[in-house]
Amino acid sequence: MSFLFRHIVIVMLLLFAKVSTAQPMQAPFEKIIVNGLHDSLSFNFIQDHRLYSERWDTLSQPKFWRYVMKLTPDSGVLNIASNRKIITTYSTKYWNSLSDSVKIRIRDSIRNEYCLKPDDKIYFTEGKGHYYDYKNAIPTISRGIEIFEKNNTDPFYAQVILLIESPGKSARSNVGALGPFQLMKGVAKNMGLRVDKEVDERKDFDRSAYAAAKLIRTICIPYADSIVRKYGIEYNPTDLWFRLLVLHVYHAGALNVAKAVDLIQPCEGSPSLIHQLWQTKTGGFGNASQNYSQIALASLFELNDIIYNNCSDLIIDAVNSSAMINSEGFENSN
Question: Which pLDDT belongs to residue 167?
Fold first, then answer.
């Protein structure tokens, strides 16, 4: 009996030691301070572990965009539109030299091989490595995060928008959006910027960031909230799927996103809602709208690779991370 008693005591002590020394549960996201990316400067980023724990990195759509982001425009990929499965890579010059009839035969052969419907789209997507200049965008991301925080807005959005929209540049889009946050003229003016013949504050990084933060905080998040509340869906404003939904509102507009979600008729808030948006088209919510959160995810994975492959050290900003995690209301404050 004494041997059995000692054995039980030892087991209990080991169990107690394991519990008492267990590491605290990792926060789903945190603010990090990174050194060594540009000379001796330090930069801030938002790191979200749910990119991996929720398996976004295993999906074909972000994988596709990461591949395209590394290709130069002289190459492109044939891919299945519905799931962005890559079939093959061609030189752009060669693909453009083919006759329409040859291209039709190639696409039909892919549909037959993969048991697709006759109207399933097969795209040729040129490389975009010239556009996604993430290394030069890094200093602006850190500054954008700072401005969003000062304006009581979730800094995650600053990071992602700067990765997607004119990264490291300040280009004008083919629909007239301008600046690092790609704001339309009317939107920028509504958010308090001066846009006229003499001055266009969309070109000013700090003013553009201020307007984008206000747009996210006062328009995009409240509309995304109303879209999901319509279906009785409860959520945390920092849920990754909800943040991606907000990004869709930022890009496509609330009414277009609402129409797409109405077609889906969601029963719960989860990554599945975003996956279904990728397969939904209606009105102004088309191919570019579907792509937006896919590109956001791919950009975040690319940024993570740059950080972890090039930084000299990385520090978790515990104070600010705690503030972000415990604050569900930074987005709802005007």
Answer: 77
